[in-house]
# Entry
Amino acid sequence: MKSGPVGEQSDGARGGRREPAWRSLWYVVENQAHNAFNDKVAQFILLAVSEVVAASRWYPQIVSVLLVLPQLFLAPVAGWLADHESKRRVLIWCSAVQVVVLGGVAAAFAAGWFWVATALFFVLAVQAAVYGPAKSGIVKELVGERHLTTASGWMQVTMIAAFACGQLLGGKAFEYGHDEVFGGDVWRAAAVPVFLLAVVAVVPLVLVFRVERTPVHGEGRFHRGLWTEHFRHLDDLMAVRRVRLTALGVSFFWLAATMLTLMLIALAAEIEPNKASRAALSSEFLGLVALGVAAGSLLTGKLSANRIELGLVPIGGVGMAVAGLVGSVAEPGGVWFGVAVLVLGACSALFMVPLHASLQDQVEPRVRGRMLSAAGLMDSLAMMVGIALQFVLMRAGLGIRWQFAVLAVLCLGVSVYVLRIIPQSFVRFLVVGLIRVVYRIRLVHPERVRESGPALLLSNHVSYIDGLVLSAACDRPVRFAAFGQFFENPVFALVLRTFGVVPISRTRAKDGIVKMAEILRGGGVACVFPEGQLTRTGMMNGIRGGFELIARRGGGPVVPVYMDDLWGSVFSSGGGRLLRRHPHHFPYHVSVMFGEPMRPEEANAGRLREAMQGLAAEALAGRGEVLRGMVRSVAGALGRQPWLTAVMVGDGSGRRLRRGELLARGMQLARRWEGLPRERIGVVLPPGLDAVTVVTALVLGGRVPVVIDVGLADEPGDLAAVMEEAGVRTVITRVAVRAALPGFPWPDHVLDVQGELEEPDSLGQAMDLAAAWVAPGVVMGWMLPEPRGTGGCGGIYREGGRVCCAVLSGEELMMQTEMLRGTDVMREGERLLNVEGMATPLGYVAGLWGPLLRGIPLMLMPRVVSGEARERALGQHLPSVVVGSAELAMAGLRHQVVGDGGETGEGAGFQRSRCHAPAEAGGIVAVSMPDPAMLTSTAEPQAGWRAGSCGRLLTGVQCVVGEDGGMELRLPGGRVLVMPEGARVDEERFLFLPGR
# Structure
């Protein structure tokens, strides 16, 4: 793994990001794990020996005091050393000292000098006091602020794991040596394992030499005042309220941890009669605590998502209180007692790890060692209080149950206090955590938001939870702006103020602008939704220019943001409804795209709109449906809810295909047609069930069906030329259709599907149908043979008096259907009538694959259907959307989409609007829809269509105007359409073409 040099800027954030030195971090992790492991093995062997030789009833308290005293007296010297020297060098010195001292402890045990070994253990505690500030301070210098929580979590996990292993191995090694190997010889049972520790401790000493060199932040000389300077450092630490509260929270953790350790050691002495085994039992109890802390640290790193998440602190504190209460009523040493101890350890990690990371982040790099040393002094004082409190409880005759109850009350009191001082962090964590559960957020270029300094985010506005999604996506806290009317509701106002939302009044907008600019000048991250309102069409509204004033007053880079695929979620206006639908997918996948930062003076509405459309196209290409490929996506879509109707024929016969049946029939034909050429294959069939089945089968087989309008048989010459140019050399049809079209330019290879459609492989189709009902939709795609072609779909049709061919690749077609899904043209729960046919881009995108992939029932209306049968079918199925021109006047019809040549306007109770789908594009470029309803009191009018326009450009279609005034449209997939002279796009992206 690559690691770069570490210097002053490694702290993170003044401008750009630095490659984290992960390899060096792992060396530090290994070194501190070894140090912690060695200390705990030595401590528990001392405790075990003290039980056998009956040194003192209060020896556990004596050892605890010996551990704390160096922090009280050496904290400032240790902090000065960590600042004066390279922290890497301090780690090397401490590792060497530990090797020597462990050897001395082993020699003291061998000689039977118990109190000499105790004195040398005190030297180990001194070494740990010097080691601590350097170890903690080097983490941010190696990985920076962005990864600080994760790195701190790993440091805590490995340290706790080392503690657990050391505690368990220390007691067990002595017990095994005493009872099984050395025949009750106390001193040999203690000396041998400690000697082995000294030998193994050489390994971390060697590895720490490979840690990258770190800078020296201070040049002050040592002076006698350093011995008491920690009290002045403590004053500095306590001067800032936020730092003071953070340090006090960490200190409370050590108070509780010290009490718990002594309580568990005392409990082991109560329930274990064998003196040599008491240390082993207490190490088992403490091992459960350590295991819980390790698990809690991992969970903290996972939940924090590369940020310091203080909202976990009150949750951890309440969990500690609940676990303490359970421990007070459970049978000591029983199963529930063990569970309580394990949970208490896990919750203590949730409490401490975010506080510890926050403390490291808040102090300045040049004095970090000294400030952390002052924090260590506070921790030591808290540990002394914990020792004294547990001693008082023991002398008062309170048993372990009552001591657990006291600990629980302390934890609950601290949790309530923490909750009162950081309610925003707690609520934010709960809400953002829920967002991360419901939404799977894919981040693209998050590094474009710097780790520190001002940044103005400008995002599209699709749903009421856009701010929460952005908060979950951004590593830094983000302040948002919202209309002042939302603050009139007390519930909304409480939530908005909790998240620091800035109210903007319609009558006094300048106040909100000034406040947002102040956030930027203070180095914060602010976010504005420049559309000014939620979209109710699925497409972006016009960009308002108020953000320009915020950017220029506040300074800092302007970062365009595009949130993709939120349209149709519960909190959006998709389908003309708000908060009145159930989620169709869980979890819901969302992409958050961060654009290239702009300088404040360069940011304007035009550049922002262009940047957002580029991000939209990039997001579209990264959607799962597009990346999965057309074959897998079609199979997966049809396999979802296979019992629903996929296609019906509007001839009054009631014939229909369910989604599972269409998938099963298509899979059967796809396997049967494995020998067909991989070229484009023509389909000459009237619109109906057979045509949809054949087209689906060809797509599932990885081929490109090209539907040929049967009405072109009267132009055989032009049709033959277009078919040849398009590479259509194989045609699938029926005998009856071929007989009815004698003038059609049939190629040499014509496949009659009449027998295959009427006499299918019943057994195989039944098995595929059963699989479609049972297996998840995505599994069905993997049951097909691996397609070698790119797939796709197209058609040959008449446009403007000429025969045209339009073909989309599989990737382009999936992008087209995804772009259409991001609009309000067709809604979930509606029925769609296709009178356009399946040969035009409008017909096969909006009238075929759009509804099939979204689960919308599709009705096809053949041209030969009589008026009576048509009326009967329409009355039975009641479509809401019609694709193509038709004279219809019926109840329930909401929208009719017509091509470029159709007339627009209000029909008999419905909206008829045009779309632009030229053959050169192969699909739809722009589309109109009815004006959306005003769903809320704060909503403003939005236009779904505009008189004289060809529709609004679909999201993902980029409009580029050259210096010469020429305009071109860039479609996802790479196609470029050059617009005729006089074409224009207005501020809401409605397309106007001359003469239309």
About this structure: The first strand starts at residue 439 and ends at 444.
